[in-house]
Amino acid sequence: MNLQQLEYIIALDIHRNHVKAAEHCHVTQPTLSMMVKKLEDELDVKIFDKSQPLKPTPAGEMIVSRARQILQDIKNLKEFIRNEKDSIEGEFRLGVIPTLAPYLLPRFLNEFLEKNPGTSFTVMELQTQEIIRLLKTNRLDIAILVTPLDDKEIRELPVFYEPILLYTSEGLKYYQQDKVNLKSLTYDNLLMLEEGHCFRGQVENLCSAKGKKVHHQLNYQSGSFETLKAMVDNNYGYTLIPELSVNVKSKHVKHFTSPEPVREVSLAVHQGFVKEMLLSKLRDAILKSIPAHFKKNEKYIRVRWN
């Protein structure tokens, strides 16, 4: 059974003539007759009494009536989806990773909500794996996180490429350099976020081939960039940090030599999410709020987190 067959039996009910019904459906009369016969065979019931004039059987009248309702429901569904795609109003659950939330949301979210009073967000700071799980179970609507995720159930819309910088204490060699070569990174004196943060995975990918981990008196792992920066400010080593979280004019901040490492920041939704206009407006608002050089990645190395 398919929708065309339902359209054919409705046309037959309206015109009570195979030729006219076929013309109405823009098919040949043999095609229409064959498809109606296949539907009758599949349902094991005669839908039309072929005596003249042509008319539905008692069972056929019920089938035609249900067919009309089904096609109307599909039409209503298509109209609903069309309206949903063009609408941004509603209450939405927004998941954001902790290494982005305090630095990105204040840049755009308040202005976005002021411009769109019919839209509201419940914002949750969650680590990447939890965000993925909640998107897939429809307990989150939208996420802002670092990609790629490599998950077929999640749709990613890349928004920008945030440079990863080095934040160093005065006592290290990096402090005297204008720019730092990625190949010079080692685990020696490196401070990192705790397990579970995707940014930790990116740091490990950058440093994974730069020598063996060594034992130190201090092996410090933090849940926030602010703590790591405070430790570095007090000469406890160095860390890697995304640009939005730091004052780039600070003497502690060093860019890497070209091509710079970046993290790809994206909007992510379940494949079934239909609010396309909302995603488009969110993306535009974010792009408007960030530095211009975040919008290109030709001279960057995209660092994976997993």
From TrEMBL:
GO terms for cellular component: protein-DNA complex. Residues 1-57 form the HTH lysR-type domain. SUPFAM superfamilies: Periplasmic binding protein-like II, Winged helix' DNA-binding domain. Residues 64-91 form a coiled coil. It comes from the Bacteria. InterPro entries: LysR_HTH_N, LysR_subst-bd, WH-like_DNA-bd_sf, WH_DNA-bd_sf. Keywords: Activator, Coiled coil, DNA-binding, Transcription, Transcription regulation. GO terms for molecular function: DNA binding; DNA-binding transcription factor activity. Pfam families: HTH_1 (PF00126), LysR_substrate (PF03466). PANTHER family: HYDROGEN PEROXIDE-INDUCIBLE GENES ACTIVATOR (PTHR30346:SF26), TRANSCRIPTIONAL DUAL REGULATOR HCAR-RELATED (PTHR30346). Belongs to the LysR transcriptional regulatory family. This is LysR family transcriptional regulator, hydrogen peroxide-inducible genes activator. It comes from Chryseolinea serpens. The lineage of its organism: Bacteria, Pseudomonadati, Bacteroidota, Cytophagia, Cytophagales.
